[in-house]
Give the backbone structure.
Amino acid sequence: MDSKKNLFKIFFSVFVIFFISIILITFSIFETIIPAVNIEKTNELKLLENNTSFICSEGILLDGFENATEWKIGTIAGEINNEKNVLKQGNNSLNITSVGGNTVWIYKTINYNFSQVRNIAFDVYVTNLGDTGNVGLYFSSVTNWSKQILLPIRSYLDEGWNRFVVNKEEFIENNEESWENDMVYIRIQLSSNTENNVSLFWDNLRINYSGTPRVMITHDGNYDSIDKIAEPILTGNGQKAVRFIHCGTIGDDDKSKLKDLQYQYSIGWDISNHGVMHLDLITLDETALDEEINDNYKWLIDNGFTNSAKFFCYPYGYYNDAVVEKVKENHVLSRDSTTGIYCKHIALDEDNTPFLMKCKTVTNFTTEQSVKDAIDLVVAQGGYLVLTFHGLVDNSDLSYNFWNKTSYQNISNYLKSYEDIGSLKVVTFSEYYNEILTLTNH
């Protein structure tokens, strides 16, 4: 009986070894027959954050502007050509030129119903902002353009690439035009502010971009009300802020002390650069410019704010090319005071975009509802929003740079309500920068 059991064990062991060998050989054969597949880049961008990520879908490509011959010129004072060296996707962008200071508009036949579309996205490259006049994107459901839907974008343009993702509600509907109608024409219009020729490059027209928004709460200046009012409110909701400080007035009357900044930094706030004395940078000579920007940077480093010294805010929101180049020496992101129609997630290798971050500036004229509207808009569009505050007061005695404590609390609570359902995340510049390190120009 024992010998039969031993024979069975031997037979079973041999069978198991044989079976495993067959499996391994099979896998080896398949590895040889089926080579590794190179996965091409998709329309999803993943920005890593510890063990989590957020995904931005670039949406559906409606027009890649690959073929200039598909477009017609509605005036004699313009030119259209394909451009292969300035583009965002595919092989070409569309170069539109206004000749001799005149207005040019181009149009194309389409057949599309946008009633179920959430937003429209496109990229525009500006060569000379000073000469660039009115710029607009139009749609119409009739061939004679007697009614139309339009989006003026001139006031939101910077030189270089500009990315727009615009909810349909932001467009202007003229003469009872409606998104419910089937659109038969698309038109782009460009004019010049001077008698010079001016060109724009258009690319990457898409619908239904989506992404997970990030909101950054920033405070400019050394106001001690940030310590007394803002800090406890934000801490109560598990939120952190970015302080842009100027070291020349630290510890003055009604100003934060170094120990206040050090405490906030220890709980995750960013303490960042706003110049030594908050001077108008475009009025300074080269030596004074360097001192105003980089001496404050050195002060931040020397006092231990090493993780957040690399973020800058332009005093008064004023800058020019020389200022931006000086900021780039020691900084990786900077913020101005301009409100953008849409702020997409930053790509660090994309022209000057990381150094021209937009914001919503909150002053004593700013209503609580308008701040909530800005938050609602970024939730709908999926980019980033920088809320810029200065000081706070515990009453209604408001000067230009101060906002009411109650309204500030309500905005913090409003952001928290979106955070609780996973619709946005409040982050510092440091946290945001660490996320976008993986976002490449595309």
